[in-house]
Amino acid sequence: MSDVAISGRTAPQPPDLRASYLRDLQRRRLYSGLLLALFALLFVSGFMLADDRNAGGFWDGLPKVFDFPSELVAEAVEKAANLPGHFVRYFPSLLETINIAAASTLVGAILASVISMLATRGLARWPALIPLFRRIMDIMRAVPEVVIALVLIFVLGGGPVAAMIAIAFHTTGALGKLFSEVNENADLRPVEGLASVGSTWTQRMWFAVLPQVAPNYLSYGLMRFEINIRASAILGFVGSGGIGYDLRNAMSWGKGRYDEVAAIFILLLTTIVIVDQISSHYRNRLVRGV
């Protein structure tokens, strides 16, 4: 007879793991269902409020949602012979848009690399100021480019400079957040080795940290370049130059100029697809060695 039986006491029974798992699963499903119902309620109420503020015009205009694309395609097909000339005419504006995106990405990436290192534990030059630099990045990331561009246009006037500054400002905050996460995975032993021989903070970052994080930096920078091309085109609608400005002017004329609108759309779409493919190829080579 076992010791348990001799002592007259029964051994404690192991918990029913399956029953406990099912209870946790049901609880999670209940919470998920409640959150989904709350989200659906907020979505429907917000939509109804927006429709009322719009004088109930959403449902009346819903059948006409494809009118503009159909008119655009029809006129572009009718004037297809003019498209090559429009491509040549608007190509300089496309280059201006790409230049805005490239300059803002470069400036934003340089500033983001510095701020991210100042905001990373173990790498920061002034550890007490890490929360300050992180809040600066949060603010730069939270303000939309179009808001910054509108303020700069009021101060500087219209043109590509305002768009470049606005996009670079937002890019600094967005890339700074990504760069700081990359920095946290860097090996600190080279940093400590350089510190032991009396190197400066700049030398430690340049020779010990940057070689480790450079592939990820370049990968994120290329990804941000794709985003900034679209952003620079959008900012053209508020007078910041580039092909977006020409697109706004062409659309404002309405029928009769839709072939120009179609040409600009084709240029933008082609450019974004090409840049996306090239960027994806080089990002894979940088990060994975493929």
From TrEMBL:
<keyword id="KW-1003">Cell membrane</keyword>
<dbReference type="GO" id="GO:0015416">
    <property type="term" value="F:ABC-type phosphonate transporter activity"/>
</dbReference>
<feature type="domain" description="ABC transmembrane type-1">
    <location>
        <begin position="94"/>
        <end position="279"/>
    </location>
</feature>
<feature type="transmembrane region" description="Helical">
    <location>
        <begin position="145"/>
        <end position="169"/>
    </location>
</feature>
<feature type="transmembrane region" description="Helical">
    <location>
        <begin position="100"/>
        <end position="124"/>
    </location>
</feature>
<feature type="transmembrane region" description="Helical">
    <location>
        <begin position="30"/>
        <end position="50"/>
    </location>
</feature>
<dbReference type="GO" id="GO:0005886">
    <property type="term" value="C:plasma membrane"/>
</dbReference>
<dbReference type="Pfam" id="PF00528">
    <property type="entry name" value="BPD_transp_1"/>
</dbReference>
<dbReference type="InterPro" id="IPR035906">
    <property type="entry name" value="MetI-like_sf"/>
</dbReference>
<keyword id="KW-0472">Membrane</keyword>
<keyword id="KW-1133">Transmembrane helix</keyword>
<comment type="similarity">
    <text>Belongs to the binding-protein-dependent transport system permease family.</text>
</comment>
<dbReference type="InterPro" id="IPR000515">
    <property type="entry name" value="MetI-like"/>
</dbReference>
<feature type="transmembrane region" description="Helical">
    <location>
        <begin position="261"/>
        <end position="278"/>
    </location>
</feature>
<protein>
    <submittedName>
        <fullName>Phosphonate ABC transporter, permease protein PhnE</fullName>
    </submittedName>
</protein>
<keyword id="KW-0813">Transport</keyword>
<keyword id="KW-0812">Transmembrane</keyword>
<dbReference type="InterPro" id="IPR005769">
    <property type="entry name" value="PhnE/PtxC"/>
</dbReference>
